[in-house]
Amino acid sequence: MNFTKIPQLKNTDSKQFFLLSGPCAIEGEEMALRIAEHIVTVTDKLKIPYIFKGSFKKANRSRVDSFTGIGDEKALKILRKVSETFEVPTITDIHEISDAEMAAEYVDVLQIPAFLVRQSDLVIAAARTGKTVNLKKGQFMSPESMKHAVAKVTDSGNEQVIITDRGTMFGYQDMIVDFRGVPTMKQYAPVVLDVTHSLQQPNQTSGVTGGRPALIGTMARAGIAAGVDGLFMETHFDPSTAKSDGANMLPLDKLEGLLNQLTVLRATINQMNL
């Protein structure tokens, strides 16, 4: 994959990991711009290639009364404004075949959710837009099986594909990241570790997903040490009021300190690989 083909992706020659980060869902223009401005400032200072993440809608919810979005076109226009304001690429997840062409008009990377990564028509529709496709590894899939998901993209004539691991479910309410899968999946495409979703505790009896955000630093450091190409972290200035996935988000004011640690670790790993 050629990262320079992602429009406006900066610092690609820094030898640092790349970062996909932002709120779980677009809740409004002010919050999206506020979060993006902070992350862009930090990543520019640390020379980290950065892609702003925000879901234009949340289709996979535990309960019918869960927040799903502010309106598709409204949220997508906010993603475009983030890109134009801060000159960074953006990523959003899609859930239906019709979403692919619509979202591709506004964002630079299309993400296939973990529960949908085996849906061939959806993956192919994303690939045919020509946008970079980020495939979330299903919680029920082995690292080896992601080879076939990647092939659906490349066989559609699109070489711009990323794999993101968000853990594997070994019980009803918890997930584990098996770092043995990192070198396996790197044979197929660049690999990202979804730090915050890996620490989710889904299927709670309340119908609201839980999480273990205190372990975000541990998980992120382990990912860099294992050799991932990038990290995915959802963040919010007040996770307690976030309308989606607040239980496992990183508070925005803690992002810079963690990224500082991770860039130092990545530089050390780079030296070890010489």
From TrEMBL:
One of its GO terms (cellular component) is cytoplasm. The keyword Iron does not apply. Its EC number is 2.5.1.55. Residues 13-263 form the DAHP synthetase I/KDSA domain. It holds the Pfam family DAHP_synth_1. It comes from the Bacteria. It is found in: Cytoplasm. InterPro entries: Aldolase_TIM (IPR013785), DAHP1/KDSA (IPR006218), KDO8P_synthase (IPR006269). Keywords: Cytoplasm, Transferase. One of its GO terms (biological process) is lipopolysaccharide biosynthetic process. It is an enzyme of class 2 (transferase). GO terms for molecular function: 3-deoxy-8-phosphooctulonate synthase activity. This is 3-deoxy-8-phosphooctulonate synthase. It comes from Muriicola soli.
